[in-house]
Structure formats: structure tokens, C-alpha cells
Amino acid sequence: MVKKRLFNYAKYYKSIIFAALFMLTIAVVADIIGPFVAKSLIDDHILGIEDYWVETDESNKSVNFNGKTYTRSTYLIDDHATISATIIQAGRNFYFIEDQVPLDGEYEYADGKITVSNLDEVQIYDAQKLSVAETMLFYGPEIPMMILLIAIYFSLFVISGIFNYGQYYFLQKAANRIIQKMRNDAFQKIQTLPISYFDNLPAGKIVARITNDTEAIRDLYVAVLSNFFTGFVYLTGIYTAMFILNAKLAFIFLGILPLIILWMVFYRKFASKYNHVIRSKISEINGMINESIQGMTIIQAFNRQKTTMNEFETLNETHFQYQNKLLSLNSLSSHNIVGLLKNIVFVGFIVYFGYDAIGANTAITIGVLYAYVDYINRLFNPISNIINQLSNLEQAMVAGERVFQLLDEKGKPISDKRIPRFQGNVQFKNVYFSYEPSKEVLKDINFSAHHGETVAFVGHTGSGKSSIMNLLFRFYDCTKGEITIDGKNIQTIDEQTLRDHMAIVLQEPYLFTGTIATNVSLGDTRITREKIEASLKAVGADKVLKNLQKGIDEPVIEKGSTLSSGQRQLISFARALAFNPAILILDEATSNIDTETESIIQNAMQVLKEGRTTFIIAHRLSTIKDADQIIVLDQGTIVEKGNHEQLMELKGKYYQMYQLQQGETFNQVS
After folding, report:
1. DSSP-assigned letters across all residues of 476-531
2. How far is residue 405's CA from residue 314's CA, in Å, rounded to a whole number?
């Protein structure tokens, strides 16, 4: 399944990959042809004058010697021409014999005579030892072809180099495109996933899948694909050439392939297991690093550095152990197994050559011998490359599985559908909700909020205040009951369409890297620069931000850490105002604000609430005294409901909470 999906991604850029593989094929073929050219150069030309010669008319292939004109029988069309002479090599010298002498015997020269031993037959011929000049005379017709073959031989190297560069460039380009698309798909998938997904998976693990895992997959399309395809073409070409040169010897070398296949099966069995653990530990390490950086203030404040280091070292040690196991497997597979096979093949070749080729009836020429040795060396290059890429292949398979797990998560496509702005009439009808099936956090919630009203939720931590807002925003859906806006069930409205008319201000406002202006508009083209400035001014942010050197173009680094909590909150208020929501949620929006900034924040809240249905989650009850409706929650149920005066007269839970906070305030003032 993973292989098929990785192949499907490659199909998006198949034209680039095909171009790369075509270039790779040409480069490999050029490499394979090289030994054939060398064999022809040696056998047909360098050693070619050791041949039968026929007395002929003068031509561009003939040689004048001893007053006669001779041409190699190889160059004659007439196969039945009468042999006039033979040139043989004995030791380091060449000898001219005016007779037909066997070319496959053993020669010995003495006193102007050549003794030829061929099987049990011994023959003696008159022979003329050729001087260097006379030898070069017979080489005359061969030199043009030798120069041509040498030029072809080196041209093949040039062609191979050019096309190897081309295939590498195009494979890299295709791989980069594939990974770019895969990362885009993964990031787009994240945008569609429910909030619950991020509750259960640390951010570092998600980051590892989009960065580290996709980078491991990249090697599949460059190194693995290139080496496997090259290896296949090389092995096919080399074995074809070996069969052409000597079929019997080639059959012997075919025995290597089953050994390689068995090793690949063995390797993948263990490498897959090790890589799963390694990729998992990398994700956990990334998650822990991310968490430690985010919480560095707490770690140092509570002196938890050593504990955190120990936890990290435990993860890192497990990762190290499995990396070592994989290293041992790779070390065994790369040079050791290939070196062993190569030595076995060379021993087999020497035994075969010594047994079958040393005799006087040998049919193996020096050129064939050279070509075979060259091909044996070339044979193990692709084998070594294939085996060395097994590690990358397994890493890519495991990484692909993890990336596709993310891509297979059930998400909802982002909708561009627009609907008219809500009036803002919200109703919860018998709503039940649980994060886990066995534990309900909201039970039988019923209330109504009308257009322009402010509804506040109070209660102890864990009472269900934030859960109600999560349901209203459709970060989660209720398990029972119904939530309506203007009489329409929100579950029939696309999440993005629903949220287009809602805004939220959090207790800890989140600012993105950019500028103050981009943090207000969030890149929405509907929000102009004039609207950004007006929103900031309306909430009073211009008074707090006036000292910034670049104004609303002041850079904001991650989370706005260079700004005060009040400045960040006012930017968050301006953002909500700029989007002009029908429904506004203020989640503990004033809990972290200093006293000096609180009056500005309170004024900003009044500006924000005007003409909108507003829901406030608050611990400081003094900030919600003017709310139209206050809902008191306890363990997921509504225990009291009314305005401030009504609840104070009731003297129930709200009254106790208010009196308790007033007492704390009085004690602090005293």
C-alpha cells in the first residue's frame, strides 16, 4: 500500500522522472559498451597482426614486405583466398612465416626456426624475426582504427558523465517536487483536522512527520530509485555482454543473483523493525525538545533541568541502541557481503580459466579475458549500490507509512461558502458532551442568548465553561442534544462558514510571527490597512502601542514575546473587532492584565460587545456584574442562572463565590 502511494506521488512528475531514467539508461549503456570497445581494440587491432596474410594487390589495408604486397585475411571478402603467410607472436617478438601456421599453439623460436606445439602434434617452420620498424609496418593498416576506437572509448566516458549529470539533476528536481507536494498535502491536512487530534499528539511528532519523514522519503526518489534502476540496467547489460563473450562462464555468474535476493529478504525483515523504532523515537525526541523549549521558564524556575535531561537521555539512548543495531546490519551488508561475493566470483573465474583456458586449445583471447575482468569489477558496483540503498529504502518505507497515517486522518475540507451574517440568537437544548465515552463533562445544558446580550459563565476549574465554548465553535460536537444559531442547528453548517461570523479572545492571546498589522488581519484581504488602524484605535491599543518605533508595522516574533501581556491582549481584541463577528467569546480575557492596563481593556471589551452576542468566561466576578445573564456551572451542570442582582438575592453558589472574592479583595486592600 505504501509503495503504491509513493508510486502515485511519483506519477505527478513522471515526465521529469522518465527523462532522468532515459538519461540514466544512456549513461549505463555507454559504460557497458566500453569493455566491448576495449576488447575489439586489443583482440582485433593491438594483437590483430597475429593473423593469416594473403598476397594481394596494393590497397589501403595492404602492407609491402620483402617485395610483395600482403593483406590480412580478416579484411578480405573472399573467405577461400589462399593463405600466403602467417604472423605469430612468441614471447615479446613477432615472426613472419611464409606458410599457414596454427594460431592456437605454443611457440618456441630458435636459430631461425619456429617450433609449434599443438596438442600432440609438433611442427617446425622457417621464420623471420620482425624488427620494431617491420612490426610497425604491419601495424600501419591498424592505426587509423585503433585511433578511432580509442576516441570512441573516451567519448563513451564523456557521454556517460554528461548523461549521469543530467539524470542526477532531473531526479533531484523530481524528488524535490514530490516532497514539496507531499509536505503541502500534509500541512493542508493539518488545517482540516479536528482539535481533538492535536489534543492527543504532541506538536513535535507532527513536525517530525512533515519535515524529517518527508526528507527520508526524498532519498527514495533520488538515491534508491537511481541506484536500483541503474543496477537493473547494469546487471542486464553486463550479463548480456558476458553471454555474448562466453555463455558457459556467464551461467556460472548467474548464481550470484539468488544469493543477493536471499540477503535482501533477510535484511528487510530486521531493518524494517529497527527503522520503525528509530523513526518513532525521533518523533518523541522532537516532541520533547519542543515541549522543553516552550516550558523553559518553568523548567528553570523549578530547577527541573537534571530531570528533563535524564528523560531526554533515556529517549536518546533507546534511539542510539537501535541506530547501532541498524548500523551493524548495514555494515554487514555493504562491504562485507559484497566483498565476499566478489572474492568467490574471482576465485571461480580463476579456477574456470585455469582449467579450461590454459590448454593449447583455448578459445579465450586476451581481449575476452580483459573484458571479463572489467565486467566482473563493474558487476559488483551496482550490486554494492543496491545493497547499500536497502537502508534508505527501509527508512523511506517506514517514513512513508508515518506520513500516510497523517494524510489518512479524517479531516473536513476547508469551505469557502459564505452565508449572511448571523443575528446572534444562540440556544443550547439538552446538550450532553464527553471527551471520553465513560466521562461526561457537560450534562443537560439548556440556555438561550439573544442578539446583543452578554452571557457570562462562572464556576470552578473543570466545571465545563470552556467545553461549552468548544461546542459553540464546533471544535467538538455534542454527543446529545442540539445547539442552534438563529434557529439553525450548527451541525448543519460547515465549520469554516460557521466561524466566519464568530471570534474568540483567549486568556493567553496567540500572536504569529509577522507584524502587528498582519496579526490583526491574519492575511484576510477583506481587512484593509484603514480597518486595522481603526480597530486598534477603537480598542485603545493606539495608546499602548504608540511608543513602538514602527507602529503597526512593528515586527512580532513568535508568540509576541517582546510585547507585554496587555499589548498582546489589545492586539487580540483589535483582531476580533476587525473581523466584525456576530458572536464573540471572551475566554478569561482580563485575568492576566495588570491594573494599569485593565481600564483600557475594560473599555475595549465594551467596544467589542456592542451589537454582538457575547459570551464571557471569567473567574473575576467583578468584571461580569453588568452581564445580561450569568450561568453558574458545577461539575458539568447548570446550577444557577440569572443576572447579578438575582443571583445575589438567591444567596446560592454565585453569592458564595462573589463574597469570597470580595473578601480576598478587601484583605488585599487592607
Report:
1. S--SEEEEEETTEEGGGS-HHHHHTTEEEE-SS----SEEHHHHHHTT-TTS-HHH
2. 26
Closest CA to 63 of 116, 136, 150, 2: 136
Which of the 8 DSSP states describes residue 414?
A: P
- Residue 116 pairs with which residues in a beta bridge? 107, 123
Conformation bin of residue 481: beta by default, left when phi > 0, alpha when psi is -120 to 50: left
Question: What is the maximum alpha-carbon separation in the chain?
Answer: 140
Strands (E), 280-368: none
pLDDT digits (tens, 9 = 90+) for 325-370: 888 777 776 556 767 777 777 777 777 666 555 444 455 666 677 7
Q: How far is CA 260 from the centre of its chain?
A: 27
Cα(583)–Cα(612) distance, rounded to whole angstroms? 6
9 close to 182: Cβ distance less than 8 angstroms: yes
The dihedral over CA atoms of 172, 175, 177, 178, expressed in degrees to the nearest 10, equals 180
Angle between helices 2-11 and 390-407 (to 10 degrees): 90
Give the global pTM.
0.70
Quote the DSSP letter at residue 129.
E
| Grid cell of 193 as nine digits | 483536522
List pLDDT tens digits, range 541-600: 877 777 788 888 888 887 777 788 788 888 888 888 898 899 999 887 665 555 556 677
With the C-alpha atoms ordered 497, 498, 502, 508, is the resulting torsion angle positive or negative?
A: negative
State which amino acid sits at residue 524.
D
The bridge status of strand 502-505 relative to strand 583-587 is: parallel
For residues 463 and 548, give the distance between their C-alpha atoms in angstroms, rounded to a whole number.
Answer: 41
